Amino acid sequence: MAPPVSSLSLSPMASSTIPSPQLPKPSTVRALSVAPCNSAASSSSPSTSSSPPCHAAAPQVASAGRRGMLALGAGFLASAALLCPAGDAGATRIEYYATVGDKLCDLNLVKSGLAYCDVEVGTGAQPPRGELINVHYTARFPDGTVFDSTYKRGRPLTMRIGAGKILRGLEQGISGGGGVPPMLVGGKRKLMIPATLAYGPEPAGCFSGDCNIPGNSTILYDLFLVGIYK
Fold first, then answer.
1. Which of 21, 83, 138, 213 could disulfide-link to 71, CB 3.0 to 4.6 Å?
2. Pick from 72, 83, 76, 81: nearest CA to 43
3. Residue 10: per-residue pLDDT
4. Which Pfam families match (predicted)?
5. Are 213 and 204 in contact (CB under 8 A)?
6. Angle value at C-alpha 208, between 211 and 88, nearest 5 degrees
7. How many helices (H) and strands (E) does the chain have?
8. Alpha carbon of residue 27 to chain centroid
9. Mean pLDDT value of segment 64-84
10. Which one-letter DSSP state was computed for residue 175?
11. Running DSSP on this structure, what letter comes out for residue 5?
């Protein structure tokens, strides 16, 4: 049976533990943090909550050092969980609980503009280029809005690396290169992908004129390399 088609394609239509972040150092690089909104949903369990919809707070901007530019931890993930879209609140909370336990880590900025950090370094094999891999991921905008997640669909995505079929930032973030180590099976990694390595200036994820991803969007990914597809 053929694997599912990747939703991370180039077409617009279509973890060793890192220590907790130190105090940021001044730099021209900006870090984004999101404060959770005030809502009873933040303390509800995924199975019992019936809280009304709420919206994540606007991102706050702060300066940070080049190798410690962004801490993506529980506070940021909690804000994403409180988005509670109508008719899909349960799925959003499931996704939230699947990733909220991840440890803090500092993003490392490389020359290409990609920033990455390992929540957990894998202990398995390094997938060869050209192979199909299974990956769980959650994709967000810097304000915390989740626009795609395999956890909400209940299964990882199968995609091919090294074939030029996925976003350049994801390719570098998974396969490595340019100062980024390759992911190993079992690893968990966070990426911040600039628009130049993502979808560029054009909107993406469009259907009937409605686009999920605005042009020039920076995208944040939580990745879990489940294994090599067999």
1. 21
2. 81
3. 52
4. FKBP_C (PF00254)
5. yes
6. 60
7. 4, 11
8. 24
9. 37
10. H
11. P
**Tokens representing 103?**
């440890």
Of 38, 155, 52, give the one whose Cα is nearest residue 94: 155
pTM of this structure: 0.62
- CA 208, CA 122: separation in Å to the nearest integer? 41
Q: Name the nearest CA neighbour of 144 among 69, 76, 84.
A: 76
109-132 pLDDT tens trace: 999 999 999 999 999 999 999 999
Distance CA 70, CA 187 (A): 19
What tokens does 88 get?
């899909």
Domains of the chain: 30-36+53-228 (3.10.50.40)
Task: State the virtual CA torsion across 125, 129, 131, 133 in degrees, nearest 10.
Answer: 60
**CA-to-CA dists, residue 180 to 60, 111, 183, angstroms:** 27, 10, 9
Determine the length of the chain: 230
Q: What is the largest CA-CA distance in the chain?
A: 52
